[in-house]
Prior knowledge:
CATH topology of the largest domain: Rossmann fold
Number of helices: 11
Radius of gyration: 25 Å
Helix content: 25-40%
Number of domains: 2
CATH superfamily of the largest domain: P-loop containing nucleotide triphosphate hydrolases
CATH class of the largest domain: Alpha Beta
CATH architecture of the largest domain: 3-Layer(aba) Sandwich
Strand content: 25-35%
Number of strands: 15
Amino acid sequence: MATAIATNQLSKIYGKHTCVKSVDLKVPEGSIYGFLGPNGAGKSTTMKMILGLVKASEGEVTVFGKKMNQKNRLDILKETGSLIESPSYYGHLTGRENLEIVRMLKGAEKKEIDEVLKTVRMEKQQHKKASAYSLGMKQRLGLAAALLGKPKLLLLDEPTNGLDPAGIQEMRELICSLPKRYGMTVMVSSHLLSEIDQMTTHTGIIHKGELIFQDSLVHLHEHSRKRILLRTDNNTAALRILDEHGCPGRITEDKISLPDMEDGKVAFFITALVKQQIGIIRVEEYQKNLEDIFLSLTGKQVSL
């Protein structure tokens, strides 16, 4: 698969503080790449370096096979749209007037304004002043501006920040539709694990400036193996009986953790326990969610 963004040992150092450390990103073309990490992990700084808004201390950035430098930066940015941290706008102008300014700067066709307004569902609010927009509408305006010029690459930094549940759902649906509608690659950062899980095809996890995981979302979920959790009135005796029947397990808190197995085997082992006068209190299937996987990768609880 072709690569839309590739970074090589990308680093950013402020004084004695290393904000981003030797990050090697590989964002597949046509993907929705989720850039996941807690606040302060280095997500925004990395995306700014990709766009050339922040100068890297070390390393290099390649976009669609072109190495980013001062000579070709503008040519690369012509194929790129972005919404970093918070949308920029002129409050005294209407949404449409704001988009007209961006359209002229990008050299896009006039008809594109109607197209992006329809895409972000802002047709009815286009003639209101931007200062009167809700946070959700401002985010949509920023996304509409980023879509002008039909970029091949779109970078969105925390696009659901501050939105209510309905706004988050709408923004998620919009982002998911972009690769198919425009044939673009989308890189979206978030500290919300559930958002990344529902939106993206590929994921990179950054923690304290270091990339600790990068692969498809499918492979990320492979870190989550199903387990059978069993609670009895005598876990110690039950564990011994299960081991005698060829079913190794371990006691975790007040439950016995067993490897995933077919329903028939579960029934067989439960029957064996009941015959030995072991009372079965609860049997459940457990699988790590994305947050559990994140915690196992970082090695500790992290405040997102």
